[in-house]
Structure formats: C-alpha cells, structure tokens
Amino acid sequence: MAGKFEVYQDRGGKYRFRLKASNGQVVASGEAYETKAAARKGCESVQNAAAGAAIVEADS
C-alpha cells in the first residue's frame, strides 16, 4: 500500500493534513486551514511540488 494524505479537523476547529507512510508513520504535516477544501488543496500542492523536487543538503 502506498502512503496517504489524511485531512482532519484539529481541536481548534481548523483543518490540517498529514502524510502517512505505508507503515502508518506520519512523515509530514501541513499548516492550519480554515476549510476542509483548503486543506485538500494543500495536499494537492504538496503532491505536485514533490513529484519533481530535488533532494539537497541544507547548510548547517
């Protein structure tokens, strides 16, 4: 099974997303959004950006 995005409502009533690996571990999470639709759009943005993203080492 591939990883999956989960959209959920936090305790403050905002919507967030998290990306879970196939083993269930959370590997990324998104910021707070006002609507569920905006959180879903955030998931789509990550999917689109990650497809061609390079892996680089950050300076310490």
From TrEMBL:
In terms of superkingdom, the source organism counts as: Bacteria
Which parts of the sequence belong to the DUF1508 domain? 10-57
Q: Which InterPro entries match?
A: DUF1508, UPF0339_domain, YegP-like_sf
Q: Which SUPFAM superfamilies match?
A: YegP-like
Q: What is this protein called?
A: YegP family protein
